[in-house]
Design a protein that fits this description.
The longest helix has 25 residues. About 20% of the residues are buried. The radius of gyration is 22 Å and the shape is elongated. α1 runs antiparallel to α2 and α2 runs antiparallel to α3. It is built from six helices and four strands; from the N terminus they run αααααβαβββ. The protein is α+β, with helices and mostly antiparallel strands and about 200 residues long. The chain has two domains: about 120 residues, no CATH class; about 70 residues.
Length: about 200
Amino acid sequence: MELLYGYLADVVAITVLCFGLYYPRHHRRELVVAFLGVNVGVLAVTTALVRSDATLGLGLGLFGVLSIIRLRSLELGQHEVAYYFSALALGLLGGLGSTTIPLTVALMGTIVAALAVADSPRMFRRDHQQLLRLDGAYPVHVDLITALERILPGTVRSATVQRVDLVDDTTLVDVRWREEAATGPTAPSAETLTLSGTAR
């Protein structure tokens, strides 16, 4: 009976994680499928290992190998990696059956709540990251910061140059910046833009 309750708790937790948190915020259908598949797969294999002679360490090692393969096969943001491993952890907790139901539910709730808070759009909403292609070559860092602050409606916190092309006269830079006013428009994360006519 406790194992059944563990399954039900996992179903509720992964449903909230995928359809209550991830999809409304990030809208990547293929990753919802991946999270559900990982969760259900881990839940099933963990249950089978617990009830067989195989050691749980063997199963966890297998999950680790599969996770590495899965993560290498698709470009994921760091927040999506967090969702991925949370889905895996929920499946493990639901399939182990070695803890009491209140503790299992509490641990699952902690995982979901942590992501709900950490990935909230209200957290650090004035801080942005963008990948910008500037119409101009800026080999000098001070000149680059000056050019970026002419373009962006805020203060540049850090700028990492990806490429300076002296032939095409362009600079590709990964910039982190903070809005001056909280009421300003929200900039998309990790967006690639081409900006022309930038003064050096």
